[in-house]
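Notes, p. 3: input format for complexes.
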Amino acid sequence: MAEVYEPVIGLEVHVQLQTQSKMFCKCKNKYGDAPNIHTCPICLGYPGTLPVLNKKAVEFGIKAGLATNCEIADFCRFARKNYFYPDLPKGYQISQYKQPLCYSGKLMIESENGEKAIGITRIHLEEDSGKSIHGVESDEDTYLDFNRCGVPLIEIVSEPDIRSPEEAYQYLRKLKLTLEYLEISDCNMEQGSLRCDANISVRKKGEREFGIRTEMKNMNSFSGVKKALEFEIKRQSKLLEEGGKVVQQTLLWDDRREEARPMRGKEESEDYRYFPEPDLVALEVDQKWLHKIKEDIAELPDEKHKRFKKEYELRDYDIDLLISDHNIANYYENTVEISEAPVLTSKWLQNEVLRVLKEENINITDFAISEKRFGQLLILLKDDKINANSAKKVFNKMLQNDVSPAEIVEEEGLAQMSGSDQLAGIIEAVLEENSDEAARYREGEKKLFGFFMGQVMKKTKGKANPQETQEILRKLLDE
Ligand code: ADP
Ligand code: MG
Ligand code: ZN
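Output follows (479 residues plus zinc ion):
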């Protein structure tokens, strides 16, 4: 059954912009503070107040447009979107309607069948509403927090180009990564700074016309979006299969139950009576300014991928991992500048640093070991001053104390034993102490080699250079 129908998906993504102040007033744009402390007559919608546009919000919107290959309007307007809701004291949101800031873009994603472009219909600016908090003390209570009123948002509307829940997931990941690289939002879905509504329809494979769509809201993670889409595709396919019709409506996703329910009719009524915002002049984008914003845009994920491949000769898999967070990518590059060992650095960053970040549930920006110290550790390893075993010990000490790796090696006596007669002497002693095993080895029990390696490591407290130990052992045992 599922084979017969093909999903068609378009996403509407709202992203809060990380400006200092709100979109039309001087109130702080800050998440997580005590309720209703970042408010003023403008964002509370007192009569007689006038909005003043935050230039930074426009700049961030333009950056999002440029990074997604959009055209940037040189002239656009704001519009009032009218509706009543307790968390919207003004009774309308200032948004953009017929003339968005950015339009006709695309975002490249990795789909199941390779690279694919997803069209971006438009990116427009709007202000956020307040927040209703339900059921704090009892089921009947609703609390209102107006700190979010007037926080700048962009809404990014995709073309209905997405053909599977997996593509939707990849689209969201790429979009989030791009916006994080631009440093215009922290894109935190749990805290609501990125919100996604999904439009879904299905059609018989090979058909050209789109089917009737529903809109799914209320997902709070990317995997939630994927699950909600899978649920709705199944529901619609089954409905059509049984001869029914899809009703155009808005559905609310219940993540705990993993099912969707229709929104109540009232919540859904969508007659916003848009009209041009009379309190704001049209927005003209100065071409010089636009040019400057273009120049300011940081390296984006795709470009970084290409450069990493060329400069560091890493595998695609490793590059994707390193660039999946631009702060990690920066940490990597700063470390390589010191270590001059791109592959070794990538390996240690992934195996050790990322492990610690995960265990401690912290970001790389809060990591205890600076790029400089990490690079110095890798130099010791690269130059065979310590072996991998000892490097791990030093790494763990470095986590606890802000001292240089060289000092730790010195203090702990971890310098690698190599080349010296000292190492040969120790190995000879090991063979003497285990003369039975040595005899058995010489008679053909070759698997005892590992036993001798172990004995040498034990005697040197893990400091022996493994390659040299192997060589010397071979020489002494096989002669
Ligand atoms: P609205 O103004 O009601 O939100 P839009 O025309 O702006 O409607 O479309 C919203 C989203 O729905 C867009 O992302 C678009 O790609 C998507 N969409 C439109 N038609 C369909 C369809 N038949 N099936 C799936 N998605 C669709
Ligand atoms: Mg919509
Ligand atoms: Zn305000």
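The CA atoms of residues 3 and 205 lie 8 Å apart.
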